[in-house]
Specification:
homodimer; Substrate Binding Domain Of Dnak, Chain:A, Domain 2; four-stranded mixed beta sheet; AH/BAR_dom_sf (chains A, B); cytoplasmic vesicle (chains A, B)
């Protein structure tokens, strides 16, 4: 197997940046690999990811000429194919697909560098994402339950990969007057600066709206922040736009969980709308709770825009924000002495181990929960129903005996039978009352934990760069002063990671306490109600 | 298909009584058909029952010469092959079987008219039945859960089948001084005469005994009646002897349920001994509760014999009792006007329908209960265990976070996990505490109800005979006075059946009330305990 982009270090990068721009691909594996550069020419190349698990930072891929080889992972953007449809073209594609009788399962076209000017364009696919990146930026990640997308843009530092944390590690001093994100030393270690009043919002009142004289319909939600108490309207695609902005801006430092699953069919069914709203609520609550995210301009815009004009202006501004990717770290100011690189690495490894272990634990609980759900809604209530029927059946046989003084027994048996039928129904309905929330919480955490490998990956890459410092100085790739700056900045990154982990832990402790309380409370009610019903049934029998 | 014993009425009977004696048979269907008569020669014939459901009182059978035909049901004794092994020969057969390497699955030999003189003979097969019939007698039945055996002996009335109720219908006046069984008219209709003090007994203290210098061992139980409070010793085979006596004596009028299952292997295992004792207790309680059975000499002997000599004397006397089979009806004296034969038939049909319907209902409940038992001891506790493990697993992951102030949550999660493990154990153990008794009760009733078709069959046969009255008078087979006597006596039989049904109903109402109370009481405790445990677990979580 040949190395498509051979060499190491800078030569590798140059090779890549000068050679490839992959705009779209029809991929067997439903994944698209994109290599992009501002220097790159705009010829189209089709790449197909063959194998992502090569390891060592390489991916096996095949290009449009059929050549198979390894490509450095860092230079690649891997996306689920549906996710990269540009909104401007998705509608067109939909009709094309219908016209061509779905001959191709997937047609993907990425249009580079053309930002969506507004969202007046409408489509049936509320969930198809706007792909309007502002051209520049560092690493941003997407992780979570619904697949992952890793985008690495390149930067201009000579001697460095144009992806990864180098952009920040060796950047100039941030411009004055820039918004600061302070990290304090709290009881538990580094912590973000938390606002006095906790931002919160309610997602409510889903309403069906139409456009184009009723040809297109969508669901619009009220989002009501506790700061203004004034509802603003948002569609799923607005949430998705916000998600993309937050991922761009904060993804290197803060895990931004995916939005609830995309869904094409049944979008207007009541059950689905309810579930999506509940999950959008969960996502918004988590974002509101995050002191850095909730304080950002784009998030505030989303919650409190005054009118359509305000929204559009803010939208355009957010899309042009250049402080995205790893550059978020340039805004962060820890109020604490620089950390030793060894300690930085130890912390990073610890977080890595913990999040991996918790990911396993959460997935295990989800599997067990799913099986329990199935049993509770399937065979178990059927069995209680059969027990109930058997009692009632025997009761009606007894009624036919013609024997006097039978009524008390037969009434009691019928009543006991009905009680077991009620229990059957209770058993079947119970998971929605308790297990549901336990599952939702763990699903949320599964999504969050899915973001950590990327967040921690940026961190690890930075640590490696710092380790390379001496060699880079010797090779005159960087100055000795650059090396000192890098160490200082990786310390800043570590403070950010620690603050984020502490935020995660504190939320986790709250969330699991809350959801376990809720689960057990409902379980107690459930068993108490059954006991009470059976006590009633019991009281009707007599051996006097 | 030819009629093997062709003709009708008397000619049929003569043909049968003069032609056939079937002593044993190796049968594919594991059933043996025996036709016997005192007049008959002793040549052996092998009969194989092909189909019992022909109806109209006929059974399809094949004799040793390969001839297939219909044989009147009344003349046939159908037994499970193990049940007819005579005790004297069973041991021998056992060894023969071993010697001949079980080439034949079944070797059955009936020895007629040789009563067992005592029970000094011992064998490993506690459960092999003594087959010592006192040569004469009417119909006796055996029914129940463990297979059925119907024995019809013949009588000497010319012009009548020597089986069935004719023996009683046309017998001479019973000798004076004979014990009377009175039937009163109670609130619910005809009822047996109930004693003022209810007889009861306890079966307890199973002890292993040995004979023949330790070569043979058996289990002996204490049986303690509430009348004397003095324990007497009995082995399973004594219970079985009692069962046979009661069946001989009362089986035509009173359903005598089978003893608990025979068992050869594992007879000395604690669990088995406990279960057998529990079931012998249940059987004895039911017999004690029956005013006719409990008042009988043989039952009193069993409960209160003074010493070995007393026991043996009583035993020999009981085995020579000639008042067995349908002749039990001759002791019965209803204190009420004779019933119209049409009413008799209606009652009979009603009882037949009811017992059939209840049999179905009981079997349905047993099936449902068995499945529930399986789920409660199999997959369900495993699932609760996995839920418990998942909580504890997540708790230990949390413990590894290194975050301060985690202990309350992790302790609570571990505790919740352990609670679900405890619930798993409770779920698995619960069926023994409640479902067990519900199942045992229904198993008992299944056994009892299995006796009714035979008991009701005797009754139906008597009704048919009365219907034939005019024809028999015309053919000078009976006198007009005989016909009047028959009608009177079938009325007595009907009173007995009604008294027995009322006894059955009153016991049934008591038993089902009691067992449902017990079941629901334990179910309430079960759910309350779970709720309490979960409440405890709940209290450890906090969102303060």
């Amino acid at each position: 197997m040949s190395l498509l982009s051979c060499g190491n270090g800078s030569s590798k990068v140059t090779a890549v940046t000068n050679c490839f721009i992959i705009k779209s691909v029809i991929s067997q594996s439903r994944h698209i690999m994109t290599l992009s550069s501002h220097k790159a020419n705009h010829s189209l190349s089709y790449w197909c990811v063959l194998f992502q698990g090569v390891g060592g930072g390489w991916i096996e891929a095949q290009n449009s000429r059929g050549e198979v080889g390894l490509v450095p992972e860092d230079y690649i953007e891997v996306r689920e194919w549906l996710g990269v449809l540009s909104m401007e073209l998705a509608s067109f594609i939909l009709y094309i697909n219908v016209l061509f009788l779905l001959i191709y399962w997937c047609v993907c076209v990425c249009v580079w560098g053309v930002g969506a000017e507004d969202d007046e364009w409408d489509d049936e696919w509320d969930d198809v994402k706007s792909n309007s990146e502002s051209g520049d930026g560092g690493a941003i990640q997407r992780g979570g339950a619904t697949g992952s997308s890793m985008k690495i843009s390149l930067n201009k530092f000579p001697g460095f990969s144009k992806s990864g944390p180098e952009l920040f590690l060796l950047c100039k001093q941030p411009p004055k007057g820039k918004e600061k994100i302070t990290i304090y030393m709290g009881e538990v270690g580094p912590v973000w600066s938390y606002p006095e009043a906790q931002l919160d919002c309610v997602v409510a009142d889903p309403k069906k709206g139409t456009k184009m004289y009723g040809l297109k319909s969508y669901i619009e939600y009220h989002v009501i922040p506790n700061t203004t108490n004034r509802p603003v309207n948002h569609r799923y695609k607005h949430f998705d736009w916000l998600y993309e902005r937050l991922l761009d801006k904060f993804g290197s430092a803060i895990p931004i969980p995916s939005l609830p699953d995309k869904q094409v069919t049944g979008r207007f069914e009541e059950e689905f709308i309810k579930m999506r709203m509940e999950r959008l609520q969960g996502w918004m609550t988590r974002m509101c709770r995050h002191p850095v995210v909730s304080n950002s301009d784009v998030f505030q815009l989303f919650l409190t825009y005054k009118d359509e004009k305000d929204w559009k202006t803010g939208k355009r501004k957010a899309e042009k924000d250049e402080d995205v990717g790893v550059m978020i770290f340039s805004s962060i100011e820890p109020e604490a002495p620089d950390l030793d690189p060894i300690e930085v690495e130890q912390k990073c490894d610890q977080f890595s181990r913990f999040t991996k272990a918790m990911d396993d634990g959460v997935k295990d609980l989800l599997t067990v929960g799913q099986e329990h759900w199935k049993r509770c809604t399937g065979p178990l209530p059927k069995e209680y129903q059969r027990i109930g029927k058997a009692f009632q059946n025997l009761s009606s046989v007894f009624t036919s005996s013609g024997y006097q003084g039978e009524a008390t027994l037969t009434d009691a048996m019928t009543s006991a039978g009905k009680t077991y039928e009620e229990i059957a129904q209770m058993v079947a309905e119970q998971p929605r009352k308790d297990l549901h929330f336990l599952m939702e919480n763990n699903n949320e955490y599964k999504g969050l934990l899915g973001c950590f490998p990327d967040t921690i990956g940026v961190h690890k890459a930075a640590i490696e760069k710092v380790k390379e410092g001496d060699r880079l100085v010797a090779a005159s790739k960087i100055t000795p002063q650059d090396k000192v700056t890098m160490a200082k900045r990786v310390s800043t990154m570590s403070y950010a990671l620690q603050a984020e982990m502490n935020h995660f832990h504190s939320n986790r402790i709250y969330d699991y306490n809350r959801v376990m309380q809720l689960y057990l409370e409902e379980q107690v009610k459930f068993y108490e109600t059954i006991a009470e019903k059976l006590k009633q049934a019991h009281s009707q029998f007599t051996t006097m």
